[in-house]
Amino acid sequence: MLQVVAFLAMEPPTGLHCDAIRDEQVKVFRTIPPLDPKHLVRGQFNGYKKEKGVAPESKVETFAAVRLEVQSWRWSVVPFLIRAGKCLPVTTTEVLVKLRKPPLDILGDKSSNLFRFRLGPGEISLSLSARVKRPGEELVSKPAHLSVVEESTADEVDAYERLLGDAMHGDGMLFVREDAVEAAWAIVDPILANETALHQYEPGSWGPREADRLALDVGGWHNPEEDKESLSHDPKAA
Fold first, then answer.
1. 137 Cβ contact list (under 8 Å, min separation 6)
2. pTM
3. What is the C-alpha to C-alpha distance for residues 78 and 68, in angstroms, rounded to an integer?
4. Which candidate, 168, 163, 177, places its Cα nearest to that of 20?
5. What is the pLDDT of residues 193-221, one digit of tens each?
6. What is the CA 156 to chain-centroid distance, rounded?
7. Listed residue (106, 108, 124, 107) closest to 116, CA to CA
8. What is the layout of strands, in order, in the sheet containing 63-69?
9. Residue 228's closest CA among 92, 76, 113?
10. What's the pLDDT tens digit per position in 141-157?
């Protein structure tokens, strides 16, 4: 997930060769302060301890939500929220970017323009949701949506097959460089040994309710299931 954050927040690379992209990723990681345990919520779904091979008193999390900040001139005061877990309603990797409202909004609508990147599995898509003026004399807005979707085909190689193929061809684009690994571990190191509370959640839910506090000031979490056909609601976060 930190790799996804880096791809989203990095500056344009000097070229398309792998080291140029890796350089920009490392710059992002080095501007993210080490995680404060108060910005972490851990969860475990009910029934996990009954799974085969799981210790009866296991404290292993099956859900984690964190709030990051990137201390750079571009991303100052912009929260980055990450949420991942098992037994959630939807299996997908998705990034939602909510654009800031302009100082003067003549349409007076409370919702913002949104970009959504869905990275799979099975579907890669880019969606834009924007508020535009309705036809007529009154300054009233309406939602407009634009989506580009590419669905995986049956003969497409899976992720591991592609990595193995890239390794055999000497293509390092999708592989992480050592300094990036070290910088990413420095971000999460403070929370690895910290015994934060482990909250229970029901399978099929979006995790423990305690995670809601991380996103309260930005309008709450975005749930992909609720947004399958439309981005007209008011989610936030990058």
1. none
2. 0.80
3. 9
4. 177
5. 777 899 999 999 999 999 999 999 988 99
6. 25
7. 124
8. 79-85, 63-69, 40-45, 198-201
9. 92
10. 787 888 887 766 556 66
